[in-house]
Design a protein that fits this description.
Length: 413
C-alpha cells in the first residue's frame, strides 16, 4: 500500500468515529494543552521580569553593592548566618565606590526597600501601604526618575537633613487629587515633610505600582527608622558593556576598604538585574519540575486509552483484516495501517492540545497581568509527545491485527 492510501484510510476511520476519537484523545489534549499553556506563562513571566521588573528596580546599565544578595530567599540557614555577620553598607562604602568609579554616570545610596510600608496623611486624608525610601540625590538619576512638578532632592537637603519629600505620581494623585502638592506638608510615620517634587510615572508591573512611594533624605530616614534596614549602593554607567569592568573595580575597592585578604570571601554582594532574573528563574524552576510529572501522568493515561480503543477497533474490524489478507495484504501492511491510525490519532490530539494551550495562555494573558509567550520548543515537544504516544501505545494493537489468521478472521461477524 502507498503511504497516501494508508493515511487516507487512517483519517477516514477517525472521521467516521468523531465522538469516540475525541474522547480517546481527551487525555492527550489536556496534557499537551497544560504543557504549552504553563510553559508559555512561565516563559512570559521570565521575559517580563527581565524587561520590566528587573530593569525598573536596577536597570540594564546599572549594578548594586548590597549587604545581602538578591537571592537571599533561596539561601540555606548556614549561609544566612554568614550573611547576617556582614557589616552594613555605609556612607563610607559609598565614598569608596565613588572614588573607585569616577567615570560612573551616578552613584547613589538608598535604603528602605522592601520595607517600610506606612500610611501617608494630608489634611485628614490618608493613603496606606506606601513604600518609603531614604536616598541620596543621585538615586533619581540611577532610577531614571524625572521630575514632573517641583524639584528633586539636592545635596543641601541631605547635608542639612531637611524634612522634604519627593512623591510618586500615583501617591500624589490619590492624596491631593486636584490640589497642587508642591509646598504642602504631609505626615509620614508621624513626622512632617514638605513636598518639594513629584516624579513622572513609571507604570505598573503585574498589578504592582512603581509610582506609589515617598523619597526622603537618607539621614531623615535613618533618624526615623534606624540604620539596621538594608542599605544599598547603586551605580549607573553610561554603557551596558562597561558594567562588568565597573563591577570588578568596585569589588576590588570594597575588598581593600573592608580589609579582606586574598582568598577571603566578600562580606558584601555585587548584583546586576540578571541576579533578579536568576532568582525568579529559580522560583519558576519548581514549576518546571512539576510539569513533567503532571504531563507524564496525562500522557500515560491517554496512551492507555488509545491502546484500548485500538484493540477494540481490531476486534471490530477482524473481518476486514481477514479480507485484506485474503486479497494479498501482507502482515506488515496491516501493521502499518493500524500504527498509522494510532499515530494520526495521537498527533491530532497533540495539535488540538497545542491550539487549546495557546488559546488558554492567550485568555490568561488578556484577563490578567500575567504575560504569556509561546516557545517553539514547547510546541515541538508537545507535538513530539503526541506522535510518540501513538508509536509507543500503537505497536501492540497493530501487531495483534497483523498476526490474525486470515481464514479465522474472515469467519468473524
Amino acid at each position: 500500500m502507498r503511504n497516501s492510501d494508508v493515511l487516507g484510510i487512517a483519517f477516514a476511520q477517525i472521521k467516521g468515529n468523531p465522538l469516540r476519537s475525541f474522547f480517546t484523545l481527551l487525555g492527550i489534549i489536556v496534557s499537551v494543552a497544560f504543557l504549552v499553556a504553563v510553559v508559555a506563562i512561565i516563559q512570559g513571566m521570565n521575559a517580563y521580569v527581565k524587561e520590566n521588573i528587573a530593569d525598573a528596580m536596577i536597570g540594564t546599565n546599572a549594578f548594586q553593592v548590597r549587604r545581602s544578595p538578591i537571592q537571599v530567599g533561596l539561601i540555606d540557614d548556614e549561609e544566612m548566618l554568614r550573611i547576617r555577620r556582614r557589616p552594613r553598607i555605609s556612607e563610607a562604602d559609598a565614598r569608596t565606590v565613588r572614588t573607585a568609579l569616577p567615570d560612573a554616570v551616578a552613584i547613589s545610596i538608598q535604603t528602605g526597600w522592601p520595607t517600610p510600608q506606612t500610611d501617608v496623611f494630608w489634611r485628614g486624608r490618608s493613603i496606606g501601604d506606601i513604600l518609603v525610601f531614604g536616598s541620596s540625590p543621585e538615586y533619581q538619576i540611577v532610577q531614571d526618575y524625572r521630575v514632573m512638578k517641583g524639584r528633586a532632592m539636592s545635596a543641601v537637603d541631605i547635608s542639612q537633613r531637611m524634612p522634604v519629600a519627593v512623591l510618586g505620581p500615583e501617591l500624589a494623585e490619590k492624596l491631593f487629587e486636584t490640589a497642587d502638592p508642591i509646598g504642602k506638608e504631609i505626615r509620614v510615620a508621624g513626622e512632617r515633610f514638605t513636598v518639594i517634587g513629584v516624579n513622572e510615572p513609571k507604570g505598573r508591573v503585574l498589578g504592582q505600582s512603581f509610582d506609589a512611594y515617598v523619597l526622603i533624605p537618607i539621614p531623615r530616614f535613618e533618624m526615623r527608622y534606624g540604620r539596621r534596614l538594608t542599605t544599598t549602593i547603586s551605580v549607573k554607567v553610561s554603557d551596558t558593556a562597561d558594567v562588568a569592568a565597573m563591577m570588578s573595580r568596585a569589588e576590588e575597592a570594597m575588598r581593600v576598604a573592608h580589609g579582606l585578604r586574598p582568598g577571603e570571601e566578600n562580606d558584601f554582594s555585587i548584583e546586576t538585574a540578571d541576579a533578579l532574573v536568576a532568582f525568579w528563574k529559580k522560583l519558576t524552576a519548581v514549576l518546571f519540575a512539576v510539569i513533567p510529572a503532571v504531563v507524564a501522568i496525562g500522557i500515560v493515561v491517554g496512551g492507555i486509552v488509545i491502546m484500548n480503543i485500538m484493540l477494540m477497533a481490531v476486534n471490530e474490524r477482524t473481518r476486514e483484516i481477514g479480507i485484506r489478507k485474503a486479497v494479498g495484504a501482507r502482515a506488515r501492511d496491516i501493521e502499518a495501517q493500524f500504527l498509522a491510525e494510532t499515530i494520526a490519532l495521537s498527533a491530532m490530539g497533540g495539535v488540538i492540545g497545542v491550539l487549546a494551550g495557546w488559546a488558554f495562555a492567550f485568555v490568561i494573558s488578556a484577563v490578567s497581568p500575567l504575560p504569556a509567550r509561546i516557545t517553539w520548543w514547547s510546541v515541538a515537544l508537545a507535538l513530539g509527545l503526541g506522535a510518540g504516544v501513538g508509536v509507543i501505545f500503537g505497536v501492540y494493537p497493530a501487531r495483534r491485527a497483523a498476526r490474525l489468521d486470515p481464514i479465522t478472521a474472515m469467519r468473524a461477524e
